[in-house]
Specification:
Length: 457
């Protein structure tokens, strides 16, 4: 019989010879809510606008991305059974390829987390401005965005119990209207609203690749249960289940929900709106009340997503800091929560939001593509780590199982390369700069250790 609990914080008794309590843990429901809550944020509410420039061909890209995301989910699930503890892509890469690969993954993923938070909060602002700052004045947009970043930070700093409860509540509140749009909304779809199948002006494959890179942003977060595996009860069983269940559920909601928006809002109007699901709801029901209801759900969804990701931006660097691959400051905690990681990363996200609103014309799309690039690097290394271990240690497994697992790993690896290529020159340019900025930090950390990796006293 399972003893899993949904959300409240449960502190295990201290281990033998230890004066410190074990980290607070949660069960399968909260782990799944963490995945769904981190994946489904305001990104899904803003993506139809970003994809409208490509036309309905982007739905093809969404299906391909969903298949690739499921391959990644299965890969993360398998890796979580092989290697326990928090850290996700960081610990997988370090275990398979050594310290430098582990550091690069931790560095990239950390950038993904706080840069992704900036993108999420920009989409959230679009839905808040359905009610206030309807003229989209930049100063007020920035103020709303900063509030959207710091409220989740304060909730996390108040303790794991509050994070878990608000995460589950926000998942429920966001899923209901999304499921409605993804089911009942399909009845109101009109083919005339879709516009040209390929509206990008590029080749079919070029449009699919570019749209796929943007669509991938909506799946960033499928690995969050593995990143926080050290806090999950019975992680060898629950992390993989939460990852796969959460990814499948998100895929269904995403594809059908985007189809509804494409079919209820004319393509020309969809390209200019900041709240596409609100416009879709208003088109279905008439008036403003339906759209405002969706806007409220989007705001709740965004805050819930930010609450989950705010925990992750502290967990990942803390796991690396324990191995002396990130500054020791990231080990600082408050109420068993990585306080320094959360505060410092939220400061960086706040700075990125301010820079983006004052320098980038397409704020959301630019931040999305940057986050996708830095996320794909850890995804690629994770798929490579799984394939490596299968080829090295899988010889003892039965051939049918080995072939199946290798096929999934190769699919995840190819998917990561495809997303990397589709993210575009600008994202690759900024992403590579962000990646290489970590090298001086690694050198600084390395000089305090000898060649065997032991810390100098």
């Amino acid at each position: 019989m399972s003893t899993e609990t949904a959300g409240p914080e449960a502190t295990a008794p201290p281990g033998p010879g230890s004066d410190q309590p074990r980290p607070s843990r949660f069960g399968l429901p909260t782990a799944t809510a963490l995945v769904v809550g981190s994946v489904i944020g305001t990104g899904v509410f803003g993506l139809p606008t970003a994809l409208a420039a490509f036309g309905p061909i982007s739905l093809v890209a969404f299906v391909l991305v969903s298949i690739g995301a499921l391959a990644l989910a299965l890969t993360f699930g398998a890796l979580s059974k092989r290697i326990s503890g928090s850290g996700g892509p960081y610990v997988y890469a370090r275990d398979a390829f050594g310290d430098f690969a582990g550091f690069l993954n931790a560095w990239c993923y950390w950038i993904t987390a706080w840069a992704g938070n900036a993108a999420i909060v920009v989409a959230l602002v679009g839905y808040v401005e359905v009610f206030v700052n309807t003229d989209h004045e930049v100063v007020w947009s920035i103020a709303i965005a900063l509030a959207g970043l710091w409220i989740p930070a304060l909730i996390n700093l108040s303790g794991l119990r509050n994070m878990a409860v608000t995460q589950i509540l926000s998942v429920v509140l966001k899923i209901v209207p999304l499921l409605f749009m993804a089911t009942v909304g399909l009845v109101f779809v009109k083919s005339a609203n879709f516009g040209p199948f390929n509206a990008s002006g590029t080749s079919v494959w070029g449009a699919i690749s570019a749209a796929g890179a943007i669509a991938l942003f909506s799946y960033i977060g499928i690995e969050t249960a593995s990143v926080a595996a050290g806090r999950v009860r019975d992680p060898e069983r629950n992390v993989s289940r939460a990852t796969v269940f959460g990814t499948i559920g998100c895929a269904v909601v995403y594809i059908l929900g985007t189809l509804t928006v494409f079919g209820t809002v004319p393509n020309a109007a969809l390209r200019d709106t900041k709240a596409p699901f609100t416009d879709a709801a208003n088109a279905i029901f008439g008036g403003q009340w339906a759209g405002q209801t969706i806007a409220i759900a989007a705001v709740v969804s965004g805050l819930g997503c930010l609450i989950g990701w705010t925990l992750i931006i502290g967990e990942m660097p803390m796991a690396a800091a324990k191995d002396n691959l990130f500054p020791k400051a990231f080990l600082r905690t408050r109420r068993d929560i990585p306080s320094f990681g959360i505060i410092s990363s939220t400061v960086l996200a706040s700075a990125l939001v301010i820079v983006s609103y004052t320098n980038f014309e397409q704020v959301f799309t630019t931040l999305v593509l940057l986050s996708v690039f830095t996320a794909v690097v850890p995804y690629l290394f994770s798929a490579a780590a799984q394939l490596y271990w299968l080829l090295v240690r899988g010889r003892r497994a039965e051939w049918p199982h080995l072939v199946r697992d290798c096929t999934v790993s190769v699919l995840a690896l190819v998917f990561a390369f495809w997303a990397l290529a589709g993210s575009g020159y600008q994202a690759v340019y900024y992403g590579v700069i962000c990646l290489l900025l970590g090298v001086p930090l690694y050198i600084w950390l390395k000089v305090s250790r000898d060649e065997y990796g032991e810390v100098r006293l």
